[in-house]
Amino acid sequence: PQEIISGESEEESNGVNLMEFSDEILLHILSYVPCTDLVLNVRRTCRKLATLCLDKSLTHTVLLQKDYKVNKDKVKQLMRDIGKEIYQLNMAGCYWLPSSTIDHVTRCKNLVKLNLSGCHVTSLRLSKMLSTLQYLRSLAIDVNPGFDASQLSSECKATLSRVSELKQTLYTPSYGVVPCCTSLEKLLLYFEILDRSREGFMLSGQLMVGESNVPHYQNLRVFYARLAPGYVNQEVVRLYLAVLSDRTPENLHAFLISAPGSFAETGATKNLLDSMARNVRLDALQLPKAWINGSGLLQHLKFNNPFYFSFSRCTLSGGHLIQRVINGGKDLKSLTSLNLSGCVHCLAPESLFRKAEDDIDSSILESLVVSCCNLRHLNLSAAHHHSSESIGNHLCQLLSRLKHLLSLALPVCSITDVAANVEKPPTASNLVPQTFGRKVRIGIQTYPRNLADQANQKIESSVFWALMGSLRFLETLEIIGSSFSSAMPRNEPAIWNSLPPCVRAQSVGDSEVAAISQLTYLQSLTLAQLPNILTGSGLISIGLQCQHLRTLSLANLGMMGKVVYMSALMDMLKHCKCLRDLRLEQPYFSAGAQFFQALSHCSSLQRLCIVSRSGTLQSDAVMSFMANCLEVIMCHMFMGESLTVCKNLQQSIVRSFQADRPALNVVIFPLLHEDLTEVIRDVPMRHLDEITLFKSRVAEEPPNLWW
Fold first, then answer.
1. β partners of residue 230
2. How confident is the model over 69-79, as a mean pLDDT?
3. Spatial separation of the C-alpha atoms in residues 546 and 573, rounded to whole Å
């Protein structure tokens, strides 16, 4: 024993003491530690750390938005210790904190930026808090049913009059605090108003007409509105826009409206757009598809140094895109983010007589790539972008020139080799209908499971392999079937059947998935409706090579009647030490003991969502998984189990783990139950928007829209 002790002492003496590092290095290390841990724990370890943990570089900005372990007492102590040193405080999505927690924010007298989106804040509490924050210039809040602007004090309104940036999420028809913000330069509006109340009454956007005050937009530079589905949201946003149509702000440089479905243009909105065409030069633009389709609007709008364009779901042709937006192929190096999701004709010269499945015009894509050479975010999903047989003009080959790309979304049919589709007859697996009907027993090719054999199988000439090899710094990748739709849409019952995949996509499978493993810095991956997945062997490559992967979403891979990739998925999960979010959507998924045992290797996992028609789960395995994975705070499962089984498991999880995990959110419910939409409305918006609902997220919003 004495020899061991002396050996340890010698090793200690030869080692490097952390406290011997310079203050600059230590401050950099400490910047990765959550502020609550720094102030409440680390600074109590020694005198040097006590001083460093209170350095202005660490206390100036406090981020609590994903600190799922923080509770009311920790926030209270944090504000008491360093409240006066905090200039920026982000508590977005802290849904688990009681509303009384907000009272402690009043200690932060020097706050300049405050984000309370997703927090429970009443009108009176908001008034009391804002009355003490005279330096506040940036604010994000929710407006819930019961909000009453008449309860805001004069001191509160004085603070709001100095706010230049406002982000407001509306759950009820209201102007919120917008009329009080007379110095607004940036306004972000998120409309999440349901058409029916919990009691079943129809809501009306006209409830807000009686409010005496109107918004002040004279200094506005950025206007952004995102609408959830529903006609009430459309009614309310029109009232916000009515003031803009009277007088367009001269300094407006970003105008963005994201609206699903049909959002018709009116006389007022037409006047607004005409005024914008005459008086402003834009840097960012997004409009509802009905406002662009068939109009000459883009021809008249003027742009300065645009950094973001979104023409999602528009019928804009490639000819119009090049002529009216990219000015005939002129230099657009300023553009960093482009969303063409659902633009089925955007890579074709015209759309009048073209079918959505026809080949693209590679010259249009080439003009786009050459002009917008600094693109960092590009979304081409939800369309059939089929390349022709001409050599060197494949979509993947042209996109490989965009060396600065950080995020990319593509349809499955766009990554297939044209020659492979022409020369190779359809395999037996491709002939199986992608339905939930009777299973057909077929012979399938046996794919190797080890990486060495996979490497030998690589088709070096594959255009997708080459694309992945050229985009080494890509952080987000989405490969989504052009006809894919999630079984769990927003505000609607679950979808029973899905559309079959595109014929061109039939050959996309394991080798293409393995190609993704070249992306060393990949952080987020979405794969949906890849029909030729036979074993899922490519997933193992990703698990081993993509060690930075934090978010994984897999949906409808391979045959629909069987989860053919389960074994490979379990092998993959054993290597995903950094994985935080996992979403799986697959019919007949069996969430049993083996699956959860493999998932338990993901020590960083925080959120899990499984959507499976006719899927099964093993309650004991779920409970064991929750006990082993201490970081998990969200467990959503929408399966084929009975309501009784689901409720009992949900109650057991909450009862066993809620006390130690204040942010725990558990929803286990039958996917096809008629009350699913009522259950969904109670899910915190952070989880619903980021993981539970499936959608393409690449270039969904302008980069750095909010801090």
1. none
2. 95
3. 12
